[in-house]
Amino acid sequence: MATGPDRPDDVSWQQRLERHRQRRPPSWRTMEVGGALSPALQALKAEEVALVDSLGTWVAAHLDTATAEWERELANLLAALRASRAAVVLVSEETGWGVVPMTEAGGRFRDRLGDLQQRLTPLCATSWLVLQGRAVNLSQLGVLVPQEPASHRPDLGR
Description:
Number of domains: 1
Strand content: 5-15%
Strand order of the largest sheet: 1-2
Helix content: 40-55%
Structural class: alpha+beta
Mean pLDDT: 90
Radius of gyration: 16 Å
């Protein structure tokens, strides 16, 4: 499930999408879902395996939404994952490791993606960090950091 936008007028983006399409094994069925990830997850059958690539582009698709609408999107995604009987592999960028523009939108992206990752942790059977072609099982090696109460979290939207 590709979560990136289509952007038909952006030639360089279209070239990037085509390179991704060419690298996929022919046996894979690709669903280019853009920001509509939750309904795509709800449509999965129990025997299917889905690879969601990536949560960062899904968050970016909803970056301009107001806080209340974002919370609904987030709740829909979490509900779809909880209800899914299919195996789902989620790919996510690690927030704060790359360049984050010092803008309101850049901060909103970082906050929303980080919050999403923390909310997903209890739903995941395992968490892996893949870096430089090596994978580290965080579920075995890491210690869960206690979350602050929701009342102390910053407003993650507009």
